[in-house]
TrEMBL record:
This is Anhydro-N-acetylmuramic acid kinase. One of its GO terms (biological process) is amino sugar metabolic process. The keyword Kinase applies. The lineage of its organism: Bacteria, Bacillati, Actinomycetota, Actinomycetes, Pseudonocardiales. One of its GO terms (molecular function) is kinase activity. It comes from Umezawaea tangerina.
């Protein structure tokens, strides 16, 4: 079936949408990318009061609906929504909230919509994140087994997360810490609201990391917490940056941005090396930042950094294709959470289904457990990484 996946990540920079052809081939799900796009994030979306939250839910739902309609014909839509709050206390996730009302998507497309994909995992004791572990664990299993070394999938959005897929072992996944979150917040403040991110890493390239700032930031207890764990911009925000660096000598804006770039690179690389990574497969908006990629490459040392594009999965659209995969698995009756990655008490069917124009007619649940994922090609061939 053709599935449209939509998501807006923690950077809130765009609505990402992708169209995938998905089918089961025994124990393998075959995902063929059919196209993806970015749509501007609604500029008037703000959260705060209950009224503002309602407006944001509606406006995001309409934005996701417009993005889905633009992708053309499909059988199903899956929406990961926009995370506006991720409630974590003492290392345990107590709740998570995503906006983007699926009724608007169903109304605009006429298709059933699988949405609210994180909440069930949280209810089962998990973090509801990183759900990328579902795609990564299926996709990179063969690569890890053939090389005999762990393959680590990395996504750098507002928050960075990894999935370590090791031969003969359960996958491990977690948020490593800030990806673009602190960088974007600092650049927005330094530019007095004129720039939302460090375009092409220009500011970082002109600066030098400040050792005392970097040391203060690296001392955050989050990095030492055991997995599974998750975090968000509720923790790593501008106020956090000001608190952590309070009392330190003032540095140039370029040096601050270079420091935050190094922070992301260092914490990601430390996590990847801790799992003995043989290769790191990167995706997400952070890979568009040449300064961050250069810093990460240095920090990883001899560990190869490749993009998901080189293995057939578009880096900019990986999370949208993830959304499509999760929706397809739920529609097929296949539990799609990875307990060793999220910390849930067991694998669960994820999401809630909003009917389209027609009555719901779910297929018979898949009879064979899904253990692998292949990336297909529109021409009909497919290959494992």
């Amino acid at each position: 079936m053709k599935v449209i996946g939509v998501i807006s990540g923690t950077s809130m920079d765009a609505v990402d949408v992708a169209l995938a052809d998905l089918h089961l081939d025994g124990d393998t799900v075959v995902l063929t990318p059919l196209g993806h796009a970015e749509h501007p994030f609604p500029a008037d979306v703000r959260t705060g009061s209950a009224a503002e939250l309602c407006r944001a839910d509606t406006r995001l739902g309409r934005a996701f609906a417009a993005a889905a309609v633009a992708m053309g014909e499909a059988d199903l839509v899956a929406s990961l929504g926009q995370t506006v709050h991720h409630w974590v206390e003492d290392g345990r996730c107590l709740g998570t909230l995503q906006l983007g009302q699926p009724a608007w998507i169903a109304e605009a497309t006429g298709l059933p919509v699988v949405a609210d994909l994180r909440a069930r995992d949280v209810a089962a004791g998990g973090h509801g994140a990183p759900l990328a572990s579902t795609l990564d664990a299926l996709w990179l299993a063969d690569l890890a087994e053939s090389s005999g070394k762990p393959a680590v999938a990395l996504n750098i959005g507002g928050i960075a997360n990894i999935t370590a897929v090791s031969p003969g072992a359960d996958p491990v996944a977690y948020d490593t810490g800030p990806g673009n979150a602190l960088l974007d917040a600092a650049v927005l403040e330094l530019s007095h609201g004129l720039r939302g991110f460090d375009v092409d890493g220009e500011l970082a390239a002109r600066g030098t990391p400040a050792p005392d700032y970097l040391a203060a930031l690296l001392a955050d207890p989050y990095y030492a917490l055991p997995a599974p764990k998750s975090t968000g911009k509720e923790h790593f925000d501008l106020a956090y940056l000001h608190r952590t660096t309070s009392g330190l000598p003032t540095v140039r804006g370029e040096d601050l941005v270079a420091t935050l770039t190094e922070l992301t690179a260092r914490t990601v690389a430390d996590a990847c090396r801790a799992h003995g990574a043989g290769v790191v497969v990167g995706s997400g908006g952070g890979l568009r930042n040449p300064a961050l990629v250069a810093a990460l490459t240095r920090a990883l040392g001899p560990v190869d950094l490749v993009t998901s594009d080189s293995l057939g999965l578009p880096s900019d659209a990986k999370e949208a294709y993830l959304s499509a995969l999760l929706g397809f698995l739920t529609w097929s009756g296949v539990p799609s959470s990875v307990p060793t990655a999220t910390g849930a008490s067991g694998a669960r069917l994820l999401g809630s289904i909003t009917p389209g124009r027609e009555p719901l007619r779910l297929p018979e649940p898949a009879a064979t457990p899904v253990t692998r994922l292949r990336i297909g090609h529109p021409g009909g061939t497919s290959a494992r990484p």
